[in-house]
Amino acid sequence: MTDITLSPAHAQDQGRNWGRIALRWLLFIALGIFALFYLMPLFVMVTTSLKSLEEIRTGSLVAFPREVTFEAWRTAWSGACTGIQCEGLRPYFWNSVMLAVPAVLISTFLGAVNGYVIAQWRFKGANLIFSLMLFGCFIPFQVVLLPMAVLLGWMGIAGTIPGLIFVHVIYGIGFTTLFFRNYYVTIPQELVKAAKVDGAGFFRIFWSIFLPLSLPIIVVTVIWQFTQIWNDFLFGVSFSQAGTQPVTVALNNIVNSTTGVKEYNVDMAAAIIAALPTLIVYAVAGKYFIRGLTAGSVKG
Amino acid sequence: MQEWLERHIPKMVLAPSFVAILIFVYGFIGWTAWVSLTRSRLLPKYEIEGLIQYDRLFASPRWDTAMGNLFIFGTLFIVIAIVLGLLIAILLDQKIRTEGVLRTIYLYPMALSMIVTGTAWKWIMNPGLGIEAMVRSWGFENFTFDWVIDPDKAIYAVVIAAVWQASGFVMALFLAGLRSVDGEIIKAAQVDGIPTYRIYSAIILPSMAPIFLSAFIVLAHLAIKSFDLVIALTGGGPGYSTDLPATYMYAMAFSRGDIGQAASSAMVMMAVVFAIVVPYLYSELRAKHD
Amino acid sequence: MAPILDIKNLYKNYGPVEVLKDINVAIEPGDFLVLVGPSGCGKSTLLNCIAGLEDITSGTISIDGRDMTHVSPKDRDIAMVFQSYALYPTMSVAKNITFGMKVRGVDAATQAEKLEKVAGQLQIEPLLNRRPGQLSGGQRQRVAMGRALVRDPKLFLFDEPLSNLDAKLRVEMRSEIKKLHHNLGATMVYVTHDQIEAMTLATKIVVMKGGIVQQIGSPAEIYNHPANLFVADFMGSPAMNLIPARAKKNGDGTKIEIARSNGAPLVLTDHHATDLPEDVILGLRPEDIAEAGFRAGEDVQEAECLIDMVEPAGADTYVVSELGGKQVTARLHAETKAQAGVPLDLAFDLAKVSYFEPGTGERLN
User: Fold this and answer.
1) Residue A182's closest CA among C90, B284, B290?
2) Which chains touch A (3 or more CB pairs under 8 A)?
3) Topology of domain C242-356, per CATH?
4) Quick one: which H or E segment has residue A139?
5) How far is it, in rounded angstroms, from Cα B260 to Cα B265?
6) C5-234: CATH homologous superfamily?
């Protein structure tokens, strides 16, 4: 931002120039230290997961593994114990997949349609409805845990994956609607008018004109919802039972299971496995991930 | 008929979501509020008994600890995350060529589950084999870093992990804010010979007031909802020294079988969130209507 | 001939706010109706009502003899061009133009044939495969027109279609729309806030203000016989001089006395006007005040006026003099010797004068 060019002709300026270079180095060093702070836990997780328990006990936290072993990964994936069961993370990983995919798709679709109505088909009360939905994004979910548990019981889907999908869809609608509404509100209303004169109806306009325009916001919403649902713990731990738990709950159970020897390498491998899908999404589509984060916080 | 349908389709499409929100957000809040006024224990009861649950709640030392922790944790977490995020954003804003890579590094924790974060930091901070052992092995035999198992300090360990996770996000917010400052104002200030640090303190930072507010709201909201991190990092312990309202509520609801306490603590949590978020949302929505 | 568009007693309210009040407009086939007025006067709302994009509170709208008041836009046999053009961003130009036909289930061969014809008319053949985002403002404008033309509707509606173009392009497109109207013999309703656009395009003008029709008439009627002070002031540039004056009956004519702060009152005699109240506002367009000797006619009267300012504008020179407490502009020939601060004999053409009642603003003669 400060783009001052100095002429090196004068000795005095020369001195200032050196000062600038030193300052520049200081800047890089500071940024480097911060980078280390953020990277260190990931580094420790990866190296620890590749060490044997023996090496962990004798070696240093930040040392590279002397001998790389994938034993801990194998255990974490298919042998670690969550309480009494010892099947590793694998079944729970698939639970999370089967839970996240439909929940993301349904909530994104509902958000798109809702946003389209609120932004482009304004009717009396639409703004009030939007405010009420927006508000739903902010409640601490603790306040709905108990009645939801009762309701899921009534509906006969307590402790099932469809039950969890239902919960995630309900409490995801607020955000997905917000995303799409804020995107569609920037599209001139004349587009709908022109399409109406052209003879297109509500769904036709959505399908032929708005949906093709929506790719960026669909990506943002899908990533946001996927991250939220995959990383969720509260709903998972409250509304699942043995066998239907999502991966975060299983990870916590593995790490905090008190039976047997504490296998830190397995814990770390399990943590990385649980984190991998969202990390991959972040690596591949970080731009959209950030856009979702900022869109979710700075309400436009 | 077709005319009528055409006219009402938008409302009909919005209706299911709206009804769902009405029931599952507002109806459920109402349910919880109602139950918080009863003597519900293992099963919900519906005879209103007054404020006994709230009396019990405020008399409970465990709840006291939880609220005290929320205050300590929330304050430290918000202040440190904002200061750190702002500092890194300003440093990154100096035309760094590797900005893209660095930004990616600073922000990736935000993509992780708090359970993963808690697991990782629990390992890093465990006294036997973690940082403490590492520094001791460097020759500092008396070095101690046992916050996770020290009832008085464990909450600060939670702060460290939480800051690690969320500060990159604050950085992203501020960086976007710095980029949206009008370049001409800065050029004008440079032409006037105003030193760089004054440009930041007098021109750029004040213009980012809304971003400070956004960051505060998001972080405060995260702090109040914090549950997973504590569960994974300390399990609320040692004892219940790192309990937060969220873990208190969960314990009452699902392990202590005290639904009345769970409901009343949830209502207090919501009151805290509302006290912070409602004025913000209100002003945001107002601004949009004008 | 039966009117092609007939609006009767139209009212439109937004809650308690009346945005359109008792609108009555009828036009014949081939007419070019321009709705003009300052922003917020309700002209665009009226156009949206004609299109069926907004409901009306009461009254009727008929198109070609059919009551369309409660008919949806797609069945009104209209086409519309929007201010922002409203081109579908993800569709090519060709798809934009044929979308309406596709929705209506017109067969592909007919679509292609009509597309070709319209593209030829508007000379946009090379653009057919591009996206709207790749077009210049003028090209987008043409595509938007193409989308309307291809419908071959009973009524074309234009909502400030030129306001997003730069000044030069605007003049070009204006004459092109006029040509189009002439060649197609189509009926058009056109909204603008630009009174020059209204004058040049219209066969019939509706001047609106505050949701109320101020005057309906041909451009010449509106220009020469404005119905009230608002219309007089709004139409024409520079605006009509509106000068407070006193009228006194004098034999078979009326003596008009205009106060001047820097000398004796200016006195003119109108031989035609009778029955004027004592206080009037006299309206005279700048071109009806000339340099003495350059305007002839039995109603031309000359008087010396002090010139306050001279503004050469190329083809003409405008001079300003203070009359009746107002800055009065006269349009002189380019070679005038007028100088600021020097008196000059001006010729007032009273054949063109309008009188208004100062209180109500209504026209008196």
Assistant:
1) B284
2) B, C
3) OB fold (Dihydrolipoamide Acetyltransferase, E2P) (2.40.50)
4) none
5) 9
6) P-loop containing nucleotide triphosphate hydrolases (3.40.50.300)
Partner B contacted by A58 (CB < 8 A): no
Q: How far apart are CA B266 and CA B268, in angstroms?
A: 5
Neighbours of chain B (3+ CB pairs under 8 A): A, C
pLDDT of residue A1: 42
- Report DSSP letters for C212-233, one per residue: EEEEEE-HHHHHHS-SBHHHHH
For chain C, how many helices (H) and strands (E)?
8, 21
Q: By the CB < 8 Å criterion, does C74 face chain B?
A: no
Is the confidence at residue A290, as pLDDT, over 80?
no
What number is the ipTM of this complex? 0.87
The structure's pTM equals 0.86
Residue numbers in A near B137 (CB within 8 A) = 60
Tell me the C-alpha to C-alpha distance, in Å, between residue A62 and each of A71, B132, B149, B158: 20, 12, 21, 21
Residue in chain A lying closest to C76 (CA): A197
Q: Which of A57, A137, A146, A272 to mutate to test the interface with B (most CBs of B within 10 A)?
A: A146
Does the domain at A90-297 match CATH 1.10.3720.10? Answer given as yes
DSSP C127-180: GTTS-GGGS-HHHHHHHHHHHHHTT--SEEEEESTTTTS-HHHHHHHHHHHHHH
Would an 8 Å CB–CB cutoff place A73 in contact with chain B?
Answer: no
Q: How many CB atoms lie within 10 A of CB A122?
A: 14
Give the rounded distance of the alpha carbon of A149 from its chain centre.
24
What is the residue extent of each domain of chain A?
11-69, 90-297
- Residue in chain C closest to A198 (alpha carbons) equals C100
Which chain B residue has its CA at the smallest distance from A38's CA?
B106
- Between CA A280 and CA A89 the distance in angstroms is 18
Distance CA C50, CA C77 (A): 11
CB contact under 8 A, A2 and B134: no
Domain with CATH 2.40.50.140 in chain C: 242-356
Phi-psi region of A173 (alpha: psi -120 to 50; beta: other; left: phi over 0): alpha
Inform me whether the C-beta atom of residue B209 falls under 8 Å from chain A C-beta atoms: no
Average pLDDT of chain A is: 86
Largest CA distance in chain A: 84
**Interval C340-349: pLDDT, tens:** 889 999 999 9
Q: Looking at residues C94-114, what average pLDDT do you find?
A: 93
Among A233, A153, A141, which residue's Cα sits nearest to residue B44? A153
Minimum CA–CA partner of B7 in chain A: A202
Residues of chain C with CATH 3.40.50.300: 5-234
* Ramachandran region, residue C91 (left: φ > 0; alpha: ψ -120 to 50; beta: rest): beta
Selected residue of A42, A107, A138 to mutate for chain B interface (largest B Cβ count, 10 A):
A138
| Domains in chain B, CATH or no CATH each | 65-289 (1.10.3720.10)
